[in-house]
Queue: 2 jobs
Job 1
Amino acid sequence: MENSTQESHHLRSENSVTHESPYPLYAMAVSSSPSRHHNHRIALGSFLEEYTNRVDVVSFDPDSLSIKTHPGLSFDHPYPPTKLMFHPPSSNPSKSDLLASSGDYLRLWEVRENSIESVAVLNNSKTSEFCAPLTSFDWNEIEPKRIGTCSIDTTCTIWDIEKNAVETQLIAHDKEVYDIAWGEARVFASVSADGSVRIFDLRDKEHSTIIYESPQPDTPLLRLAWNKQDLRYMATILMDSNKVVILDIRSPALPVAELERHRASVNAIAWAPHTCRHICSAGDDSQALIWELPTVAGPNGIDPMSMYSAGSEINQLQWCAAQPDWIAISFSNKMQLLKV
Amino acid sequence: MATGEEGNEGVPANLRKQLAVAVRSIQWSYAIFWSLSATKQGVLRWGDGYYNGDIKTRKTVQAVELKPDKIGLQRSEQLRDLYESLLEGETDAQNKRPSAALSPEDLTDEEWYYLVCMSFVFNPGEGLPGRALADGETIWLCNAQYADSKVFSRSLLAKSASIQTVVCFPYLGGVIELGVTELVPEDPSLLQHIKVSLLDFSKPICSEKSASIQRNGEADEEPMCAKVDCDIVDELVLENLYSPAQEIKFDPENIRELRESIPKELDMDSLDECSNGCEHNYQTEDSFMVDGMNGGASQVQSWHFVDDDFSYGVQGSINSSDCISEAIVNQDKHKSSPERENAKKAHLEELQECNHSKLSSLDLGADDITNYRRTISAVLRNSDQLPETRCICSCGCKSSFVRWRMVEAHKPRAHQETLKKILFKVPLMHRGQALKSEQENGAKSLLGDVDFCAGHILSTKKKEHEKFLVLRSMIPSIEEIDKASILDDTILYLRELEARVEELESGMDSTDFEGKVTRKKLPDMIEQTSDNCKKRWINKRKASDIDETDAELDRNAQGDGLQSDVKVNVKEQEVLIEMKCPYREYLLLDILEAVNNLHLDTHSIQSSTLDGVLTLTLKSKFRGAALSPAGMIRQVLRKITWKY
C-alpha cells in the first residue's frame, strides 16, 4: 500500500500463501465466519471440461500462514460449478457451515468437521427435461434464507432455502443472465448478455430499472458487484474489455467511472468489505489491481493504488468480509491468498 | 453582512450571524427573524434570515476562498438578492431580471420555501409568528406540513419543502422562527440552547472561528473545522445544553489522520445523530472531500442530477450530489469517444436546466421513476450511515501488493477464456447431459464427454443419404441427385403445397379468419416473452380468448386418435418445424414457449386448424451460438403435443 514499496518477490512467504491444486480452479468461496473448531475455510471448485468435477474445502490459518487440505471435505460436482458461496455471517455462530454451489441446479451442502453432506438440490423446472443451468447466484446477507439465482434462460429465480421452495421467478432480461447481486433484503441487480444492468425490487415485480447499458449494443456484461459498504455504487465488467465500470444507482445511464488500467480483459471484481471506496479487479494480464475511488478524478482517469502480478491469468477474485486483510485469487491450478 | 436592507431598522446588528450560529449548532434548516414593521403598527415582516438547509447549486461568483460558515452566509445573502431581483422583475416587467448570483432553477424546495417566506407579512396575531408575538410565548409546531392554514399559513409550502417542525418565539421585539425538515418533538432544552447562543454572542463569530482555525495551522482543514468549530464554540459557551455537540471531541490528531487517509471519516455519525442524519453527513463529507482535493476553494460545480422531487423522496440522503459523479464526468469527458461525449455533454446540459429528471435516455416514464425512487430509498435508507471506515493500511505485516505503476504486462492470446467458458459453454454441457440421459433410458454412456451433437450426426450420417433418396422420390419435380438441389426443390414444392392449402382454407371463411388472427397474434407474443411475468400472463389470457373462439367455431371432433406428426429440419442456423397434431387449448402457446426456450427466434409461422387438427409450419433461427440438435427439438415438440 502506501507504506510498502518493496518488491513482492522476496517477501512472498510473509505476505502470501499459495495452495496448489491438482486441477485448474475457477469457483472459489471464503467462509464468512470461523468457528472455534476450525480456521477460515475456503471452498475451491475445479474447472475441468468434463462431467466429473470436484469441490474441495481447505482451511487457512492466518497465524501460521498455512493452508491445510482435508481429504474428507470434498465432493463431486457435475461439470464445473459456476459459483460457490458460503452462508453469510449469521447471528447464530453455532449453526453449521452451509455452502451453496450452482451448476445445473442450486445445491446446498453442509460442511461438517470431516465430511460434507448434501442438504438440498433445488430444481425449479416443472418437467425434468430442460432445467435451465445457472450461471451465478447470490446469497442475501440481510435475509439469509433468500438466494437469488440467474440462468441462461433469461430468468432470475429467488429461492427460500428454509422451505426449499421458489419464492418467485422473474424474466429478467432479453438474453442470458450472467450475474446477480443483492443490494437489500428485497432489491437485487442483474447483468446479462443483452448488455444491461437492471435493478429489481421484489415488492414491485412488474418494474425493473435499467441503470446501465453497454455502449456497444449487445455487448454482454459478464460480472456484477454491489458495494456492500456503500450501496450507491456497483461495478460491472464487459466482455472482452479491460474496463471496470463503476455505476451509481442514483444516476442511471451514466457510469461514475471507468477504470481502465488493465492491459487485458478483466475477469473478476470485488469490492473491499471493510471500506467503502476500494475495489479490486483481476484480469488476463495476470494482474490484480486495487483501486481507490476518489471523489474527484484526475484528467487522465483513475490510477490504481496498488498492484500484484501473478504467474498467469487470474480467473477469480474473492475479498471476504471475515478476512478483510486477505484477498484470495486463483489462476491456473493455484489459489493464492494475498495480504492487502 | 448586508447593510443595505430596507425597512429593517428593527434588526439588531450581526443578527444574521447569530442566527447562523444558532441554527447551525442544532443543525436545523433555517432561521428567520421577523421584525416589526416601522410603517405599520404591529405587523411582522421579514427581518433577516439564515439558510442552513440543502443547497442544489453552488456557484462561486468570486474566486475568493470561502469558509463554509461564510458560504452559508453568502448563500443566505444570495437568496435575499434573488428575492429582491424577482420582486423588481415583477414590478417592472420591462427590465430584464438583474443578474443575481442565483436563478430560480438552482434552488431546492427548501430554498424556495425560504425565499417565499421573505414575501410574507403577518398582521398582529396572524400566523405563527403573529401569534407568538401576541402571546409572548414560544410556539412549537410539529408536523407543520399538515397544519391548518389558519394556524400556520405556510403549511402547503412547508409540505413541498418537507419542513416538518417550526418553532417561533418572541425575541427582541420581533419573532425568531426556526424550521427543520425533520420531525423534532418539543424540547425545552433546545430552546434554551438557542436563546443562550443568541444572547451570548455580541462579537462577530467569524473571528472566533478563524482564530480556532489558525490554531490548527492547516488552511485546508477549514471546511472540516468549520463543522467541528460549531462544536468548539458550543462547547466553550454552552455546556450541557444539547446533545449532538457533546459527542465531538475535537481532536487535532483526527484531522491530521484524515489528511492522510481521505476515505476515513470522523465521527460524523455521532454528530448527525439527530436532525438531518445522513443529509448533513454527506453534505459535509462532500464539501470536505472536494475542498480537500482542490485546495480549499469550493470551485467545483456540483449540481443535482435529478430534480428536486428526487431529493424530496429520499429525505435528502441523496443530497450529496457527489462530486464523484459530476466532477469525474467532467474530467472524463475528453476520454470518451466523440459521440458518447456529445451525448454526455448534451445530457449534462439538460441536467443543468434542472427541469426534469432526465432519465429520458432510458425512456423512463414518470411511473417508473417513482417506483425506482422508492426502490433506491429502500436500499439507501436501510444502509447504515457511512461507517467509520478503516484505512487499507496494513499494520505490521508487509503487503503482497506494491504501489502501482504502469508496466508492460503479459498479454494473453485468448480473452477471458475461463470466464467465457464458465458462462457460455458450461451451462450447455448440462443441457446436453440432460438430454442424453433421457435418450439412453438407463444405458450408461461410456464416454464422459458431452458432445451430443457430434454423436447424433455420426449415427445418422448413414441414414441421411437414404433419406434424401426417399425425399427425391416423393417430390415430382426433382431431377438432380445432389443434396443441395434436392432440398431446394423440396422447399419449392412445399411452398406450392402451402399456397394451395391456403387457397383451400380461404374458401372456408370462419376458419380462415381465426387462422389469420392467430397468426397475427403470435409475433406479439413472441416479442413479449422477454418482458416480465405479468405482461406475459396478460398475453396468455388474450391468446386464450382467441383459442376459445377458435374451438367454438370448429366444433368438429377433436381428433383424439390422430397421430401427431413433428418434422424438424435443421440447416445451419435455420430451423424449419412442421407439425400436425390434434388441437387443444394453449397448444400454440406451449409450442412457441418451447421454441423460445430452445433459443430459437421464430420469424415466420403459418398455422391452420382444420377438423380439430392443427397444422403448423414454423421457420426460425438459432439465437446465439447454442445449437440444439434436431432430435432434441423434435422431442420437445412431441411431448407438448401429447400433453392434455
Job 2
Amino acid sequence: MRVRGLPASRGGGVGVVPDAGRDRGQGVLQELLLLFYKMLGFLKHPVVVTANINLNVVALTAVGLLSRLWQLSYPGAVVFDEVYYGQYISFYMKRIFFLDGSGPPFGHMLLALGGYLGGFDGNFLWNRIGAEYSSNVPVRSLRLLPAAAGALSVPMAYQILLELGSSHCAAMGAALLMLIENALITQSRLMLLESVLIFFNLLAVLSYLKFSNSQKQRPFSPSWWFWLMLTGVACSCAVGVKYVGVFTYLLVLAVAGVHAWHLIGDRTLSNVCVLGHLLARAAALLVTPAATYVLFFYVHLSLAYRSGPHDQIMSSAFQASLEGGLARITQGQPLEVAYGSQVTLKNVFGKPVPCWLHSHQSTYPVVYESGRGSSHQQQVTCYPFKDVNNWWIVKDPGRHQLVVNNPPKPVRHGDVVQLVHGMTTRFLNTHDVAAPLSPHSQEVSCYVDYNISMPAQNLWRLEIVNRDSDTEVWKTILSEVRLVHVNTSTVLKLSGAHLPDWGFRQLEVVGEKMARAYHESTVWNVEEHRYGKSQEQKEREVELHSPAQMDVSRNLSFVARFLELQWRMLTAKSDGSEHKYSSSPLDWVTLDTSIAYWLHPRTSAQIHLLGNVVIWASAGLATVLYVLLFVWYLLRRRRKICDLPEDSWLRWVLAGALCAGGWAVNYLPFFLMEKTLFLYHYLPALAFQILLLPVVLEHISDHLCRTQLLRSLFSALLVAWYSCACHVFNALRPLTYGDRSLSPSELKALRWKDSWDILIRKQ
Amino acid sequence: MPPVVGGGLAGSELRSRRCGPQTATVVGPDKTADPAARSLKRPAWGSRHFEAAGRWALLALVTLLSFATRFHRLDQPPHVCWDETHFGKMGSYYINRTFFFDVHPPLGKMLIGLAGYLSGYDGTFLFQKPGDKYEHHNYMGMRGFCAFLGSLLVPFAYLTVWELSKSLPAALLTAALLTFDTGCLTLSQYILLDPILMFFIMAAMLSTVKYNSCANRPFSAPWWFWLSLTGINLAGALGVKFVGLFIILQVGWNTISDLWHLFGDLSLSMVTVGKHLAARVLCLIVLPLTLYTATYAVHFTVLNKSGPGDGFFSSAFQSRLSGNNLHNASIPEHLAYGSVITVKNLRMAIGYLHSHRHLYPEGIGARQQQVTTYLHKDYNNLWIIKKHNTNADPLDPSFPVEFVRHGDIIRLEHKETSRNLHSHYHEAPLTRKHYQVTGYGINGTGDSNDFWRIEVVNRKFGNRIKVLRSRIRLIHLVTGCVLGSSGKVLPKWGWEQLEVTCTPYLKETLNSIWNVEDHINPKLPNISLEVLQPSFPEVLLESHMVMIRGNSGLKPKDNEFTSKPWHWPINYQGLRFSGINDTDFRVYLLGNPVVWWLNLLSIALYLLLGSAIAIAVQRGARLPAEVEGLSQVLLRGGGQLLLGWALHYFPFFLMGRILYFHHYFPAMLFSSMLTGILWDTLLRLWAWSLASSSLARGLYVVGNLGLLLGTAYSFYLFHPLAYGMVGPLAQDPQSPMAGLRWLESWDF
C-alpha cells in the first residue's frame, strides 16, 4: 500500500513545487501534510518479520557468553569494588534512599535488578573485600547482568565493523579480540558497571550506524525509526550508568550533527523534508535521551523511598518527603511560622557538614589564642547533631510573650523578629566584634548584659529567598530564609570553620558583611517546628524536650526532588584520597599498572585486573598508525592526490571518527579529572581502540600491500600475531578467572612488568 | 550527496576556506572602487576623500578621548587600591632586586617596576595593605604606565574592527563601547597586570588582523612586520599572565587555517608553501619563545638578592641568591652521623621538615609533639642524624667520622626540642589513610618507633649520601611506611603549616622524596656549592613548576562568596577596589551595564543571524550581492571575534582555582568588537531592505547615533563608579547612586 503522490525513491522527496506566490501557503501546508504521512510511513505497511540469522553472530554470542559466564558464582566472596556497589544493591532491596556521587542511578538499578530476580533480600554487610557471601546472596544472578552485557559486546563488535563497511573477516577479528581481552573479561564477571557502560556505548554507535546506513535507502521506515530511537536511548543509558558515558553521547551527537549538515546541503531534498529530518533527529537524539535520563531518576526515587544514612546530605524538604527519618518527626508540624513558634534552623548549604543553629551556656573566651579579644558573650554555633539546644523561639520585638497567640500571627517576608534561644532565653545578637575564626566577619552571640555599654543588637529582618510574593509567609521546611541584622546589615552565615576546643569543635556562625552577595551558606530553613504554649521557662524546657507532633504531610514535586538530587550528586565531593592501586592515565596505555581484585583466603588463587598485553600494544600502535595515515592522506588530498577511492576514503574517515574518536573522548578527559583514577576507567576507551585495530589492519592489507605475495605474507603474520594474543590470554587466564592457584615461581614468571603487583604469598 | 562524516566535512570546509579570502579580497576593492554604485545604499559618510581623511581624524579623536577618560583623576584615590598591594609591591621588589615568588610570569611586574624606576619611585613604599596612603611616594609613574597601556586598547579595538569590517561606524561603535565602559576604565587606572595583559592581547589581535590583510602580498615588508609583531605580542601576553595562552590559541588557529588554505592552493609550489610555514614557525613560535625565555633571563638576573620567595624553590636554586645562606656557602659534601641538617621536600612549595613545642591537640592521634613542613627558614627546621642504637655524641672528637650510607637505620633528633622523629599506627590528622608522624622521647631517648631506614632513590646499598644532590626517602622501620608530606594545610592548631604523614603506599612520588639542604658538621671539610648551581633551563623549568603549583593551590573555600564565570557576562557583581563605608572614597569595578548587556544581546543575535545565514548558504540560497558582502564580514570577521570571546571565556569554567570578576575583561574586549560589527551589519541590512534610499540613510544614521549617544549617556550616569564616589551607599535612598542600583547584587 502506498500513499498517492509519495514517490518511493528518496531523491524525489515531496516534490510539489507551487508556482505562484498565492499558492505558497497552501503548498507548504500540503507539503507538511505529505511529510507527516511520510514520517509516519511505517504505519502504512504490515509488520513483517523476516528471520535472517547470521550464524557468525550466533557463534560469537555463544563463545562470548561462555567466556563471561563460566563459573560465574566463583569466587563466592566480595571482590574489589563489589564492596562499593553491593551496598547500593542492598539499599535498593530495602527501598532505602541513597546518593552516590560517582554516577547516576541507572547502573545501580540494573545491578539491583539482578538482585531482585535472584530474590536477594539485601541482608549482607558489605564491609570488606574478600568477605565470604552468605547463602542469601544470589551471587550468580547479581553478576549475571554485567556478564551478559560483556558477552554481548563481542557480537556487537562484529556488527559494528560490518556496518562500517569492513569485511566479515575484519569484523570477526574485532569480535575475537574482544573475546580474549583479559581485562574486559575480569571486569564483566563481577558486580561492576564498566561492562554495562561499554555495552551501551557500543550499542549507541551500532544503532547510529544502522540508522545512518538505512538513511540512504529507506528514510522514515520502521527500522529507520527504530535505530534512531535506539541510538538516543542507548546514549542516555550510557550516561545513566556513568557520567563518562556523556562523552560517547557527545561523539554520536557530533557525527549526527555533521551528517545533518550534509543533509541540509542536499539540494535534492525539499526544505520541508529537511526540516522533517532535523526534527526527527532532534526528537530522538536530544529529547528522548533527556526524558529517559529523567525517567531513571523517577524510578530511583520511587524505588528508594525510605529514609536512610544519606538523608543528611539532602535538604529538610527532601528528607521530609522520604518515609521515616525526618518525615516521622516533621509530619504534622504547623506549616506557617508564627510569633511564638519554636523552631530549629538548619543551614541550607550544609558544608562541611549539615548542621543546625545552636547555642549553649558557654561563652566566648575573653582572649583568643591569637591575642584578639571577644565580647565574652554566649557562644552561637552550628551543631551537626539533633540537640535540645538547637531550639529557638521566634519572638515579636513588640511583645513580651513567648507563646503563640490564638489565632497565630504568621511571620512574613520583611518582618523584623528576635530569636530567643529556648534553653537559655538569651537573644540572638551580633555586633561589631570580629568573629573568632573569620576576623573579617562579625561575631554572633547570645546577648549577655554585662553592663559595659555594649547594647543588645538583637533585631533581625527576615528575607525569604524563594518567595513568590513580597508578603509571603515563613513556611516550615519550604521557605529558605536569610536573617539580616537590622543595625549592621550583616547576614547570619555558616563560615564552615571548626571552632577550637573552647567551642567544642562545633562550627562557627558569623555575621557576614557582604550581605548583598548571595551564597547558600547564608540561607537557613526551619526544620522542626511547633507552636509554643508554655509561659514559664521551666515548663518551656520540658516542652522543648518533648518530641514535636501534629499532622499535616507535605510532598515535594518530582521535578524539585530530581533537581535537588542531581545537583547534590554533581556537587558531592569525593575525598580525593589515594589508593594503593590508583594510577594515572599515562600508565594505562602502556598497561603499567594493575589492580589486585581478590585473593583466595588460603591459596594464591587470585583475580587480578590485567590486560592482554599483545592486544593493548597493538591497539595502541594501530591508533598511532591510523592518525599518521590519516594526516598523510589528508595532506595529499589537499594537494589533489587521491590515494584512496572516494568511498573507501569516506569509510576510513567514518571508522576513524567513531573508533579513534571513541577512544579519544573516553580517554583524554581523564587527564582533566581530579578524582582517584584506576586502570578500569580505561576499559571503555580500550573497547573502541579494539574496534579500530582490524580497520587499520584491513586497510594495510587492502591498500598498502601492493602485491598478492605481500598480502599473503601479511595474512600469515596476522595469524601468528593472533595466536600470540591467544597465548597471552591463556597465560593470564588464571589471574582473570582466579580459578587456579599458581605457585610462587609461576606467579613471578607472570610478573612481566615491575609495576604489576601480583600478590605472592610468603611461604 | 550521501551524508557521510569526515570527508565531506573536511572537503566542504576546505572549499569554503579557499574561496573565503578570495571573495574577501574581491569584496574589499569592490567597496572602495565602486563607490558610486553603492552610494545609493551607503549612508551618510559621502565621498571617498572625506572617508580617508575622516578615518584619521576619527582615530585621533578616539585616541584622545580614550586618553582623556583614562588619565582623568588618575591620582585618586591616593592610597593603595585592591591588588595594587601585590603588584605594586612586586614592582618594588624589582627596584630593590629582592627575589620573590608569584603565580604569574614576570613580564608584567617587571614593566611596572621599570615604569616606577623611570618615574623616580625608589621602591621604599611597603604596599602593605589596601588603603595605605602613598603620601610622598611617587606612584603616578606606575599608574600612568598602566593607564597609558589601557588607553591604547581603544584605538587598537577601533583599528581591528575597521580592518575586519571596513566600516567606520562599526569601528566607532566599538571604540565608544570601550571608552565608555566603566569597568575597562577602572581596571586601566591602577597598578595592575590586567591593563598590560589586555594591551598585549589586543596588540596581538590587531597585528594578526593586519597581517591577514597583507595576505595578497606575502613576504613583503609590512607582511613581515605584522607577522613578527604578532609573535612579539604573543610573547608579551604570555609573559604577563598565563591567560595569554588563549590569544596564542586564537592566533594559532588562525595561522593553521591560513596555512591549510595556502597548502590547498595548487598554484603555489611546495617550496613556497614550505617558505610560508617556515616564516610562521620563525615568527610565531621561535621568536615568542625566545622573547619569553628572555624575560625570565632578565627576571633572574635582576632579582639576585634573597627575599620572601626563596623557600618556594629548591635548595640548588637558592644558592644563586645573594643573602641566602646557601649563597657562596660551603658545606660538607657527605652526610655523617652527628651532622645537623635541614631536610627539604622535593615537591615544590612544601618546605622543610619542621617541628615545634606544640602538641597535636586532643583527639588527633597521639598527644605528642607536632611534626610539619614549613616553607620558611627557621631554627626549628634543624635535625641531628644519630645512630639508632647508641645515644653517644658522635661529634665527640674521640670517635672517628662515620658516614651515613644508603640503607642505614638512623634516628632523626629535633635539635631544638631533642625529640625524635617518630611514627606509629595512629591515623594522620588530615589524610586518614596515612600514619601520624610526631616528635617523641625525652632528650633523644625514645623507642623503636623512632627508627628510620634512609634510602637514596636509584642508588645501590652502601653508598654515601650527598648533600643537596641525593634524593632520599625515609622508611619507617616498624610500620614500613614512607615519610612524606601530603601538602595539606593544617588548621589553626598546626599554625597552618603543612601536614607530614607516613604513607603506607610505597609508590615513589615527589611528596615522599627529600633532600638534605643545610649541613653542619665541624669534623668534615667543606666544599663549595658553586658546582651545584642549576643551569638556566633547569631554573626555567623549576620556576614554571612552582608557578603552576601555586596557581592550582589557589582554591576557593566552600563557604566563601566566590565569583562564578556565569556571573560575568551579565555583570552580576562587581569588585570593591577601594572603600566600604559611606565616608570612604569608594571605587567599584563594575562594567557599564548598558554596554555589557548590549554585548550579551549582541552575542545571542550574532549566533542567530550567523546560523541563519550559514544554513541559507548551505541550502544553496542566492544572496543579493550587498547581503553577500555583509554576510562575509559577519561570518569571517565576526567569527574571529566570537572565537576570541569564547577562548577567553569558556576555559574559566574548567578552572578549579579561585576566580575573580576581572578575569572576564579580555573576553569583554572581543565581545565589544563583535557588538560593533554586528550592529553595523544589522543596521545596513535593515537599511538595505527598505525601499526608499533616503529613509534607509536616515535610519542608518539615526541608529548609529542612537547607539553612540546611548553609550555616552550611560557613561555619564555610571562614571562615579570608576572616578570614585563619597557619600551614602547606594542602598540608601538618599544616595545619588540609588536609582542606578539596577541589580540587587551591586554593592556600591
